[in-house]
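Re: protoporphyrin IX containing FE structure - here you go.
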Amino acid sequence: MLNLYRSAVGKKVLMALTGLMLFGFVLGHMVGNLKIYQGPEKLNAYAEWLREVGSPAVPHGGVLWIARIGLLAAVGIHILSAWQLTRMSRKARPHDYAKLESVQLTYASRTMRWGGVIVALFVVYHLMHLTWGSLHSDFIPGDAYHNVVAGFQVLPISLFYIVAQVALALHLNHGLWSLFQSLGWNHPSINPWRRRLAGAFAAIVFIGNVSFPIAVLTGLVA
Ligand code: HEM
């Protein structure tokens, strides 16, 4: 097990499994946020339900905290493995190829690294904006609906969210595609489906997420 963990294959499997967890969160978060279209009561009731779920068996917010710790661990392992894999590949090839053998592969992995950094920075900003409110000029604790609407009415903030979703979509598309590879689901007969599935899931998350700032900017959600 230790040898597997130390190997590049082991780290790729870890990246794939934690990536799958994070993808599940991103998809679930987008679907949950669709409640914005049902009005403030429904969205805020959903936010409150996330805190109540599991009670009285577990204390208020208990399940949410367990999910948060799991998510944080997944993010940590995902980033650590990415960093270690980058170092391993640099060590294996200290000098760049004089001529790139596979431009496409290098381009994809480079985009994954930088895309991952951009997504991580977006998440930190997003937490300070809509969870803690420290980067929100009109934040009301416990009123997620108001915070989203007031937040997205600021054009540069909406534009920033939309740009970040482009980075996330590219990361999800390539991440989902390579995830199957790392878990061994790689065969010429299923590869076209892999490509389509990854593209479709990335597109669903992208369309759902960019719809929120656009709906606020156009006045559909107010
Ligand atoms: C435009 C799309 C998005 C909207 C409208 C949105 C909205 C929100 C809101 C309102 C909260 C606070 C919930 C609460 O405190 O009850 C939140 C929390 C959060 N969001 Fe988003 N979000 C979006 C996209 C994303 C994306 C793409 C990610 C990750 C890549 C993400 C990750 C998180 C995380 C980690 C939390 C903290 C959850 C917690 O610990 O309670 N969000 N989001």
